[in-house]
Design a protein that fits this description.
heterodimer, A: about 475 residues, mainly alpha, two-stranded antiparallel sheet, 21 helices, 4 strands, B: mainly beta, 6-stranded mixed beta sheet
């Protein structure tokens, strides 16, 4: 009992400080200050330790159980992206690898636990993330315009230039602030940040410019910086991937009979998920060399085209095939250079290189659980509409961009420098938001349940009384 | 506050609108100068200033076998003045063969003495091929060479040369024949240009490197020819301070009736001969 009182006192005394630290950590991570993600991962871990009392006090046993099950795949991902054949052969170092494990879990937990801090306002956290990302993107945007002018990827499409005696395609690059200097980076890498920012515009569907002008214009400025950063390159593929996000946002905001439509959409979504799951299973078995399947696919022109000989599947097959070898099962060693260079463009397949087969399975399990959790969050959470739409749009946009346009070798002049999605700042931000929006797969979270809070307080009071009584008897 | 924001916005726009657009200033279609067709790959670009705003040659210097050096293998680096031929802090000569830039700085002669390592400003543009430290054909087709005909090329440096010690040129010859491993004697005219503000013209200083035996179709092997400015110019050595341009032309020395060094020459029976420049080195120079 004494411990509980101490926890209450601790929570009451330090909640403002902890909120400040969380927001600062998120802003620094979003801005990727000095490209020191390793520091932010450890910082996130330390702050998450301070949040443990909040989580302990405002989470029911049922929620813990649900969270535990939800987190299993994330724990597998964290450990295998931290320590695998890949990370060892790349020589990232123990401290860096450990930071990946701790950071992955910590940022998810940060989101989960900070929601339990009464004074925490997600608006401020989203604003901090948005402002930091916007500053980063804006600096790169201005310098890119200065060096290339607008629309360089279209105006100079296919043209090349020479740097350090080597040839580069100018339409594939733009400028980006990495660490303390601007460097040349692939447009797809930069557009991920622009895409994340653009989702802020979805909030405008809920914010009235008359009633909340300050919030409206701030959100608009943040979102427009993101959108402009993609348009002025322009990165057409990234723009196309924003269309589903736009449709989702419009549907989420304007479809009145959401419950009815929701059921239909749910069936469509589950049907799509089922088809995608079967396709994935076939692709995996095909790569594993299951003879009847490989013969069937290679013997049919359409299936062969679909599963073997197209520009999306070729690199994926290259990666999946190596996954089933003894030394590729726990991530690829550097000797699997072809598999490492095969650009799948999708973080869900890049994890095969970095963590191996189990991490690959865990990733899809985590994605599924997150989808179910977000569906419940969108339907049940008491968060403001603009918060929900921003979080959901951002997660969908990152999922789409990361599934088609993720670039593992984004540095133009150092094209052997591997960029891991699972060590990147966007990954940490996304984990924080998934943690924040996490909704148990059954029941309500304690913080969303006012009755439960009252009950909790009452039961605490009763327990306190009981304990005092026991102490009196002992005396 | 609003005024400050407005001014910041104006400043940003001004910055963008007056952008240098450096990164799109020199663009090429596809694999420029690497098409695989010998006749298409000549680099013959002369900077307009070096064509139109040039004074008469101020001084001509003869570079002879006595005041120059020629390097074909590691041991030949001993010809350089101390300690230029040795790996930093050792008595071992540089490696002639290791020429992959950056990674082998300190061991390979090219990556240890190239102009990009002296000043990064030399990294941008087609001519960065001549400044990148790859002093020979390293297996990748035409990766680092600049092919010139007799009229050569003339270019401005991105900065002015303030201090300089010696010049070196890594070069081989090539023709379209099926003959291999022979020498062609060539005279190379190397000119440095110093801009004279009083007359608003570039003043040329010509270095005639005569009768150089150029390895031709020699398994891609190159020779480094060079000279020390102090050794050739003597008391005039400071005349090249603030040199801001350079050109290279060449002629054949001897009886080569079957050859032409004019890329436009279509005379039947004439074989086109070109110089393949791999590296222009000005080691230990400084630029402003």
């Amino acid at each position: 009992m004494d411990l509980k009182n101490k926890l209450y006192a601790l929570v009451d005394k330090y909640d403002a400080l902890i909120i400040f630290l969380v927001i600062e950590c998120l802003a620094l991570t979003a801005f990727s200050l000095a490209d020191a993600n390793i520091i932010f991962r450890y910082l996130g871990f330390l702050i998450s330790l301070a949040l443990i009392p909040f989580a302990l006090m405002f989470t029911s046993k049922r929620e813990w159980l649900s969270l535990g099950l939800f987190s299993i795949p994330l724990v597998v991902i964290a450990f295998l992206t931290g320590f695998s054949n890949f990370t060892i052969s790349m020589g990232f170092g123990f401290v860096d690898n450990l930071s990946v494990v701790l950071g992955t879990l910590a940022f998810f937990f940060l989101g989960f636990a900070v929601r339990r801090v009464k004074k925490f306002n997600i608006d401020i956290a989203l604003l901090a993330i948005g402002a930091a990302l916007a500053l980063l993107v804006f600096l790169g945007l201005v310098y890119s315009l200065y060096q290339y002018g607008p629309f360089h990827a279209s105006l100079y499409d296919g043209l090349v230039y020479y740097y350090d005696g080597r040839l580069f395609v100018v339409s594939e690059e733009t400028k980006w602030l990495l660490g303390f200097s601007f460097i040349e980076v692939s447009i797809n890498y930069v557009s991920l940040f622009g895409t994340m920012l653009t989702t802020a515009l979805a909030a405008l569907l809920y914010i009235s410019p008359r009633e909340e002008p300050r919030k409206f214009f701030l959100t608009a400025a943040i979102g427009l910086i993101g959108l402009l950063s993609i348009i002025v390159i322009p990165n057409i593929e990234a723009l196309i991937l924003l269309i589903p996000v736009l449709l989702f946002a419009l549907g989420y905001r304007f479809i009145k009979a959401r419950e009815k439509v929701g059921i239909i959409l749910q069936y469509v979504f589950f049907a799509f998920l089922g088809i995608a799951g079967i396709a994935l299973l076939i692709a995996v078995l095909n790569a594993a060399g299951v003879s009847f399947l490989t013969n069937m696919i290679s013997g049919n022109a359409f299936l062969n085209r679909l599963f073997n000989t197209n520009r999306i599947m070729s690199p994926i097959n290259e990666v999946l095939t190596k996954m089933f070898t003894a030394s590729g099962f726990f991530g690829f060693p550097i000797t699997y250079i072809e598999g490492l260079l095969a650009n799948t463009g999708a973080f869900a397949f890049e994890i095969v290189k970095e963590g191996g087969f189990l991490a690959f399975l865990a990733m899809f399990a985590f994605l599924l659980l997150t989808i179910f959790s977000m569906v419940r969050y969108s339907a049940k959470s008491k968060d403001n509409g603009y918060v929900k739409i921003v979080i959901l749009s951002l997660l969908i946009a990152t999922l789409l961009h990361g599934s088609f346009l993720w670039d593992t070798f984004p540095l133009i002049y150092e094209n052997d420098y591997y960029f891991s999605f699972f060590r990147s700042a966007p990954y940490l931000i996304v984990l924080f938001l998934i943690g924040y929006a996490y909704y148990p797969l059954s029941g309500k979270p304690l913080v969303d349940n006012s009755e439960a809070n009252v009950l909790l307080e009452e039961s605490n009071f009763e327990e306190e009384q009981l304990e005092n009584h026991e102490e009196e008897i002992k005396l | 506050m609003k005024r400050k924001s407005f001014l910041a916005l104006i400043a940003t726009f001004a910055f963008v609108l007056t952008g240098c657009m450096n990164d799109v200033a020199e663009l090429y279609e596809g694999h420029a100068y690497d098409t695989g067709d010998f006749a298409e790959n000549y680099y013959s670009t002369w900077n307009d200033n070096l064509k139109n705003s040039v004074a008469t040659v101020a001084k001509t210097y003869d570079v002879t076998s006595i005041n120059s050096f020629q390097i074909d293998k590691d041991e030949d680096f001993n010809q350089l003045w101390e300690p230029d031929g040795y790996r930093s802090g050792t008595t071992e000569p540089y490696s002639f063969l290791i020429d992959t830039p950056h990674e082998d700085a300190g061991v390979g002669y090219g990556p240890s003495n190239n102009l990009i390592s002296v000043d990064e400003v030399f990294a941008r543009g087609f001519l960065s091929r001549l400044y990148d430290g790859r002093i020979q054909c390293d297996g990748y087709y035409a990766k680092s060479r600049v092919q010139i005909d007799g009229a050569g090329y003339g270019a401005l440096f991105p900065k002015e040369m303030v201090n300089y010690r010696y010049f070196a040129l890594s070069v081989r010859g090539a023709d379209m024949s099926v003959n291999y491993n022979f020498f062609v004697n060539v005279n190379i005219n190397l000119t440095f240009y110093v801009y004279n503000h009083d007359i608003a013209l570039y003043v040329p200083y010509l270095f005639q490197m005569k009768n150089l035996p150029i390895k031709t179709n020699y398994n891609s092997q190159v020779t480094i020819f060079g000279f020390y400015f102090a050794g050739v110019m003597g008391a005039d050595v400071n005349l090249l301070k603030r040199a801001s341009g350079m050109s290279i032309t060449f002629s054949l020395e001897g009886d080569y009736e079957d050859y032409t060094i004019d890329r436009e020459d279509e005379t039947e029976g004439k074989e086109h001969f070109a110089l393949m420049l791999y590296e222009v080195l000005l080691p230990k120079s400084s630029w402003n």
